[in-house]
Structure formats: structure tokens, C-alpha cells
């Protein structure tokens, strides 16, 4: 059986769906499945070696998120004679394989259409209903996203399987030398408040800035707020809020941070805060816990499911609530110690090996039913 995995996203960006693909491929190579995999890469991708002996590259011309992608990709795939195509970015082509599996990471664009550009809203919301009908089976990053698919798009529950993601297996508490070297590189000292994620509206960075302003006004915080991540769509409000609240001297924005530096940045933080309005999974919270850093998270979407009681939950709509959550962790050493211990144990429950094993189970089920 030949299974194609759409890996074109790896030629365009890091993080998010690209990170999912990059971790899934080598994990699948460790599962004895008896499949022949075709890794579908864009021609701009310079990768020369695939994950294992049963993985072969297929070079494609169709770019991601092209308006004719559904048809041109399908035409390109016909020569491969795939039994199954897995689309990690959820939109499969109109043809090109016998069966289709898609991964839906979140339905943010249905919950909060105002958080997207008009172009992005047309692309995602305009195709999701077609995509879930086209797929023989759907993978969801969390049970929260699975329930969203059932409730918002009337997908039969038996056609959706929750398959959790995991932190990069190299993530863990940085040793003293690595911590010292990395923090010196970014001119940081331990104890800062950390945010990791793309600067876009659903991440609620303006709400976090308002909470941070409250804490500084009360004298409860003097450490800087450090935001690690690139600029997404509609990011301008974040920088406008920094100026409005006169926080420019106290907030650091770090862009293009290599993944290798993240464990040390997590380790050096007093805490990570993820006050998102919506997350389909919430990988930074899991990464932080794996590095022994306590987390303050939104009580929305998948975050409570993934953190599993090992963090402090807050209402993302209320800056006062976010501030109170941060203050609780900073001001209570016993709470902090409990969160560090519980978070490390919780993070250890998520592995890419388990993600791959469950993904292969879905592949087998779909191929067996066809």
C-alpha cells in the first residue's frame, strides 16, 4: 500500500503545521506498518534524505494555499497511484488518491472569523465543509477540536479520531552552561515572563500586555515580558498596545529564534503564559512543562485538556484574571513547585511515538474499509 504525506508546507515555514509534519515523519518511520510512503515535497524544499528506507520523495510544483491547489495537486498526484493521501493542512485535493485522511488542527476560523484576514477567512472557511466531506477519516489534535468538528460541522463522531501531538523529544530543562550561554545571547537574565507563539489576534497578546501593565502598576512585577514568535496576520494591535500602555522599555520581542534555543528560553522563564482565546492544541504549554517551567493558560479550547490540571487556568477575556494567575505563580513558591512537578509528569505522557502509532491505526482502518 502506498501512502502519500503532503509535506509541501516544510518549504515555506517553521512551526505550527510544518512542525507537526517534521516530527510525524521520523516517528512514522519507527512504526512497523508495511506501507510504502511517498513524502510530497515542494520543488523548493532542499531536503535530500527521507526518514527511513520505506520513505521516498516525490517532488511537486503546486504551492501551498494556491487558489487552484485542489485541482492542480490532484493532477500531479495521479502518476504516484497512491492508495491513501494524508493532508496535514486539512484540505485534500479533488483527486489523486484512492482514499483521503486529513488533520484538522483547530476551527478558529469558524469561532473567531474577525481574527483572520478576509483572504484567509475565504481560504479556510470556504473549504472546510468540502474537506471534511471528502475525507474518509479525520485526525484532530485534541478532543476539544474533535467535539468542535462534530458540533459545528455535523461530522459523524466515528469519522474523527483524537490524536494528540507532543513536544520535541529534545526539549527538557537546559543545563547551567546552556542556559547561561543562551540568555547572554539574548541579553536576558532568569525570571522573565514568557510568551511563545505567533503574534496574531487569537493568541490574545494585547490582553496579556494589559495584564502585565496591571502587575507593573501594582509593583508585583519588575521582570520583563518576553514574547518569542513571528508576526502573523493582524499583528499590528500588539505593537499599538505596547505603545499605548507605555511598555516599550519592558517588553522584548524575539523573532526568528532557532528551535535549539527554546529549551533554554523556557528554562530561564519564571513562567510561560498562554492566554489564547482559542487553541487547537497549545504546544508551547507542553514544551514549557517539559522544560520544568510552570504555565498560566487560558481556560478555553484544548489548553485545559492538554495541560490536564498541571497549570493555572484564567479567563482570557479578563486582564485582571490573567494578572491574578501570573501573580499567584510568582508569589507562591509552594504552588510553583507543585506546578513544576505536575507539569513535567504531564508532558511525559505525550510522545511522537504514540502520535505515529495512532496515526498508523487510522491509516490501516481507512485502507481496510476501502
| CATH class designation of the largest domain | Alpha Beta
Oligomer classification: single chain
Distance between the termini: 12 Å
Residue windows where pLDDT falls under 50 for at least 5 positions: none
Total of helices? 15
Would you give an account of this structure?
The chain has about 375 residues and is an alpha/beta fold. It folds into two domains: about 1-165 and about 350-365, Glycogen Phosphorylase B (Rossmann fold), CATH 3.40.50; about 175-345, Rossmann fold, CATH 3.40.50. The chain is about 40% helix and about 20% strand. It has 15 helices and 13 strands. The chain has helices spanning about 15-30, 70-75, 110, 120-125, 130-135, 145-155, 175-185, 205-215, 235-245, 260-265, 285-290, 305, 320-330, 335-345, 350-370; strands at about 1-5, 35-40, 55-60, 80-85, 95-105, 135-140, 160, 190-195, 225-230, 250-255, 270-275, 295-300, 310-315. The strands form two sheets. Strands 3-2-1-4-5-6-7 form a seven-stranded parallel sheet, sandwiched between helices. A six-stranded parallel sheet has the order 10-9-8-11-12-13, with helices on both faces. α1 (about 15-30) crosses α15, α8 packs parallel to α9 (about 235-245) and α11 packs across α14 (about 335-345). The longest helix has 18 residues, at about 350-370. It is globular, with a radius of gyration of 21 Å. The N and C termini lie close together (about 10 Å).
Annotate the secondary structure layout.
Layout: E1 2-6, H1 16-29, E2 36-42, E3 55-60, H2 69-77, E4 82-87, E5 97-104, H3 108-111, H4 118-125, H5 128-134, E6 137-140, H6 143-153, E7 160-162, H7 176-185, E8 192-196, H8 205-217, E9 225-228, H9 236-244, E10 251-254, H10 262-267, E11 269-274, H11 283-290, E12 295-298, H12 303-307, E13 312-314, H13 319-331, H14 333-347, H15 352-369
Parallel strand pairs: 1-2, 1-4, 2-3, 4-5, 5-6, 6-7, 8-9, 8-11, 9-10, 11-12, 12-13
